Amino acid sequence: MDLNRRMAPSLHVLRAKWLEHKKDPKHQPWRFIEKPRAPFREETFSHFLINIQDESSSYRLVHLDPLRGGGVIIGESVHWLDLACWFFEPQFPVKIQAWGSSRLSHGINLTFSEGDTATIIFSCCGTFDYPKEIYEVTSNAALFRNKFFVENEYFGVPGLDRETFRLQHDPFPELAPEGGFASYMEKYKKLTQDSDNVKKVYNQFTVDKGHENMLDKFADAILNDRPSPCDEIAGHVSTYLAKLAIKSIELGQALPVLYEYIRPSIA
Predict the structure, then answer these.
(1) Of 24, 266, 50, whose CA–CA distance to 144 is shortest?
(2) Residue 11 pLDDT
(3) Which of 11, 3, 52 is nearest to 150 (CA)?
(4) According to the model, what pLDDT value does residue 258 have?
(5) CA pair distance 18, 249, nearest whole angstrom
(6) Are 151 and 181 in contact (CB under 8 A)?
(7) Domain spans of the chain, in order of start
(8) What one-character-per-residue DSSP string does the chain give?
(9) Nearest to 104 by CA among 69, 133, 79
(10) b/e for 191-217, b at 16 or more Cβ within 10 A?
């Protein structure tokens, strides 16, 4: 299944840094604690915020058709539902609550089996003048942030420095070679300043969302009999969660995620 976000290099690094901190938390020496006490259970959970801002004028009507396209929860948010499931493995989702429009702007909250949560905020009222995706993980008095696949920032953990990641396609390698988010924005501005349609130049300038890694790992799985980078069960789970999210919006309530649906027995 081509749910590529789980294969983005920058998100792999972010997840590894989060897991390391979760296993052995380290904090800044100036951290202020009013009164030493054992943490409440809720304070041990991690929270994954997936913030998506998009410009819906680019959507084809078939994408929004309830019978053929299904709306952006089915068409788009399956990517981030899959990402959240991959991020919190081996946990599994146990509850889902969604709100907004099943066709356009919406929010989805997933609760996982050990208490961690993921929240997807999808706005169709945004602008192509700014990158589409920002990811943030808060965990044990630390913040891990991914800025559109080109930069990771870390706060609250001593010794972790900002990291930058290469573009997948860069028509301006000589411009802002230091990389990172500010560099991306400078290159993007140059690319679009003389264009009257961002779609015309979109494929000339792309960040690494994991497409190349997904294809490489898929070929390796076939040639060398290795596990698929995103198998049919992962595709089934993200689709099942998307359908539950739509049902949650219809009913206006949280719904359980049935374990037998996400860990099915296949003869």
Answers:
(1) 50
(2) 98
(3) 11
(4) 96
(5) 31
(6) yes
(7) 4-22+44-165+230-262
(8) ---GGGG-HHHHHHHHHHHHHHHS----TT---SS--PPPGGGG-EEEEEEEE-BGGG--HHHH-TTTT--HIIIIIHHHHHHHHHHTTT--EEEEEEEE-SSSSEEEEEEETTS-EEEEEEESB--TTS-SEEEEEEESS-EEEEETTTEEEEESSTT---EE--EEE-S-TTSSTT-SHHHHHHHHHHHHTT-S-HHHHGGGSEE--SHHHHHHHHHHHHHHT---SS-HHHHHHHHHHHHHHHHHHHHTS-EE--HHHHS----
(9) 69
(10) bbeeeeeeeeeeeebebbbbeebbeeb
The answer for residues whose C-beta is within 8 angstroms of residue 199's C-beta and 6 or more apart is 58
**Two tokens at 213?**
């890694």
User: How confident is the model over 12-31, as a mean pLDDT?
Assistant: 95
**How many CA within 13 A on the CB side of residue 89?**
14
CA triple 231-235-237, angle to 5 deg: 115
Q: What is the mean pLDDT of residues 9-27?
A: 96
pTM of the model: 0.94
| Confidence at residue 198, expressed as pLDDT on a 0 to 100 scale | 67
Amino acid at 15: R
pLDDT value for 39: 86
pLDDT single digits (tens) 99-144: 999 999 999 999 999 999 999 999 999 998 999 999 999 999 999 9
User: What is the assigned CATH class of domain 4-22+44-165+230-262?
Assistant: alpha beta
Report yes or no: 160 and 17 within 8 Å, Cβ to Cβ: yes
Task: Spell out the residues 6+ positions from residue 80 whose beta carbon is closer than 8 angstroms to its own.
Answer: 5, 50, 52, 120, 122
CA angle 132, 69, 252 (to 5 degrees): 80
